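Side project, low priority. Logging it here so it doesn't get lost.
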Amino acid sequence: MNKVSVITVNYNQPKVTEELLHSISLLNRYPDIEIIVVDNGSKNDPVPEWISKYPDVAFIRSDENLGFAGGNNLGIEAATGDYLFLVNNDTEFTPGLIETLVSVLDKNPRVGMVSPKIRFFDQPDTLQYVGFTSMNFNTARNKTVGEFEIDKGQYDNVTGLTGFAHGAAMMVRMSAIKKAGLMFQHFFLYYEEMDWCERIKKAGFEIWVEPRALIYHKESVSVGKKSPLKEFFMNRNRILFIRRNAPVLSRLIFYCHFGLLVSPRNLLKYVKEGRMDLAKQLFRAIWWNITHKKNSSELGFPINKI
């Protein structure tokens, strides 16, 4: 039996993280797991209390917020499992979740990463994810399969290849990580799992979705839907993802598409909504990519505002 390391990252959400730990304790029956919680520089350190409250869980404390990728990388480096199940702290487990994903990796050695079906926690019959289409590198666009549909089991027999895993829940083969490397943590927030999927594919592995495994996701607990933080990193990292992964011709087409169509359209929308703060973040995101190399470690967003 392959050991599974369940890794999650907490940032100023101790109650949400405890709800996840409760769901794992209540619903998981897979015997060989370790649970690793990384506290990503929370203002109030919850780890001392958690150590006594959850003696079977391993806790790691970072003194600073390392972002989604950096926090998960700390957990990955400490993990001893053959398979690593990275889950957002705002998810909750369902029966058979780990067993079903493990079965995919056990039976298919070419699969490096697999995600379960994801439903919205507050709308438990509504799908968030049952796979992604491939990326159009000319526009940096792809689609989420099944999003906002009522789940009637219509995707339960489509186990197999998908464009990308979902960052909220992805089980990764340790051998794939050793070949592809850790997540590129300088994305900090958004697109890091897509960049990681591309590198895992280049290392010779496949990305799958398994709709017969289910997890619930409390979407948008961490970041507001129209916050300056989200606007900056979504735009900065969309461009950065293309710079790191797209062929040369596609990069050139994307720059024209983003500069001549996407940016003017978004700016007009911000003006109509009276959100000039978001317009500022769009310009900052573009300027960051003009002035920084694609492997730059500089975030470009004030760390004290994250």
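Brief comment: The chain has a mean pLDDT of 95.
Revisit when time allows.
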